[in-house]
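Section 5.1 Outputs to date
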Amino acid sequence: MKRAILTICVALVVAATAFAKEKKLVTTCFNTDIHCDKCKEKIMNNIPVLGKGIEDVTVDVPSKVVCVTFNSAKTDNQRIIDGLGALRVKATIQENDVPQNK
């Protein structure tokens, strides 16, 4: 009986761990106040400041848009905005991205 309970507990822990590690990737684009290639370099050289779970960052200087693909289990839009703020980049979520990031 004890062995059966122990086996079930181990199976539950393994299943919970596998479920928790599942990546939930989200891409959000932010309107920013960047204006030059140095701004782009500042962001690209400091990606860890944006938060944990960042998978990809693209910076388009002419349109002043920064798109971030991230694991939503590790970070969220507000943390990324705060991270950009730490780099002295003002950012807001593009309106057309709001519905996909609930």
